Amino acid sequence: MPPADGTMEDLTVVECTRCPALVDSRSRIVNGVGPRDAELVIVGEAPGEQEDRTGEPFVGRSGSVLTDALHAAGIDREDIRITNAVRCRPPDNRNPHSNELARCRDWLEAELSAIDPAVILAVGKVPASHLLDRDVAVTAEAGTVERLTLGDRRYPVVICVHPAAVLYDRSQEERLADAIETAAHHLGVSPDDRQRSLGDF
Description:
The protein is of the alpha/beta class. The protein is 38% helix and 18% strand.
């Protein structure tokens, strides 16, 4: 990788010029947030307008839906890591192109390998398909668990609908809840055990 191509310090990408369209569209690189020893990592698609403005993934209305669903499953958002498959906002909030996902892949893999989570929640069709390297029918497959191999480690990946889907179709709420409960089950967390911190696992 050429030195000007990008720089990652610990879990933070501090410079990247791999995708000219995204460099022009973004106001900042939006890195993951949350503890570096998190047992659960949520992987979304890409920053939207509000994420680009605040520098944090999953804020705004969809972030509130996600936070509420996590809480209902006994998971505190502060105990988990939230990141995206692509760290820069695509123009007009379009889906990231396959080459943009590919160029950002090593940043994501470095982050996941460093954190070494117990489970990964892939939120939405794009990150699920990208992580699993196949076309995922996210509505039909929500709540199912597959495996991602990184180096010598294999991670359970729970497929999940995007919380924004709930804002437009309330019937997706149950699918979102079921997927998050599946992730919670892998962590040994239950809704009746809200006082336990994921940091204790």
